[in-house]
Amino acid sequence: MTTTSEATGQKLTAKGLATRERIVRAAAELIYEQGAQSTNNEQIREAAGVSGSQLTRHFPTKESLVRAVLAWQADHIVTRHQAPELGELDSFAALHRWADSYIASEDMLRGGCTFGSLAAEVVKNEPTHRDTVAAGFARWQALFRRGLSAMRDRGELRPEADPTALAHLLTAAFQGGALLDQAAGDSTPLRDALYGALAYVESFARKG
Description:
Blueprint: H1 14-34, H2 41-48, H3 52-58, H4 62-81, H5 92-103, H6 106-111, H7 114-125, H8 130-153, H9 163-184, H10 188-202
């Protein structure tokens, strides 16, 4: 996370960093619940417990705050994918644990993917955020690509397995399944999408 003020470009003190984090966290929660377009400065100010001048000092425009929220959500997605029980996502068992952790999540039914939901909204309405969205997805896919590459290097996947293509498949299955979960209010679509994607990954397993 950046340690400089969006408004002045100056490094922030520990107190300033804490205030910035509080603003971003509050904005992220509000935007997750009601969308970026429906979230205004007054709501963010009240939820974060900051003044208007504090909000403006850290984020002079709504666009700068949305960029920070996108980066914050991407940080959390990456951190969750690096949980100790998942290791390096470099085994079939770890990939299944990853899928099951999301299939069982009530948050997926409530609001879908925290990063993907916002990304889908802003990339259409605010094309200037496209680079931030792309960077977030690239960080996420890099985790899968690294794990799948390790599996191929160890001979667990056949040489023709393409880690980049498989990483795209896993993230696309996740995003599509998460949206269908929201619509249906049921975790079955995400389960089917992720298990189907994992079955395809496993079709590249080296036999014998």
